[in-house]
Known about the structure:
By secondary structure, this protein is an alpha/beta fold. It has eight helices and 17 strands. α2 crosses α3 (63-70).
Amino acid sequence: MIKAVIVDDNPDIRVTNKHLLAEYFIEVEVVGEADSVEAAYNLISQTLPHLVLLDIELKDGTGFQLLQKLTPYSFKVIFITGYNQYALKAIKFHAIDYILKPVNATEFREAVQSTIDLIEKDFSTHDQNEQFLQNFSANVGPSKIVLRTIDALHLVKISDILFCKNDNSYTTFHLSSDEKIMVSKGIVFYEEILTESGFFRPHQSYLVNLRHVKRLDKADGGYVILDSGDEIPISSRRKKSLIQLLENL
């Protein structure tokens, strides 16, 4: 049996989450609820859950402050969040599952199932948790991104990413070490969070780290040549924006 704790200062959302867990996940037992950092800290310390559904904004602080008090922790976290863009971007960078408010049953099932898979495989997320809290506490842009595959969690330096290639609902990361990592999220997801880290999408199938661009070849429609020798096509409608970005590097 997987033990779960629900932490949210909205009693209606706690009820919704509890009902959804009961409806879709018979292997999950809710062992307690809390509405504040202090109450949640005591509850989690006593019950030692496998899974915590955690609101970001609580009565006496934030879910991040709670995790910092509990560090190091081994339970898995699913954040329950509104549209706090900074918090959401940090969560996405570190491949932590989240559910947006108002809670949608389909998104809830997907996030919980993904996290249960990690629990059942006994995936260690210690490094992932540590990196997440360090970045969030420092209030700086992350230097690493967590990429989750079927078999592992990869902590990858953003500077080591050459480019990403889209393949339907999958994205393959090509690294400077020649390693390739395929993840089950589309390139649009990564475009959203990596643009501020110096990435640009010159073509619908590619996302490029501009720091690795060696030159721009205007022949035959246009290509970006990376310092690795890889050639990335440029769509005609994105060429002007790319040239402007490269001129400002």
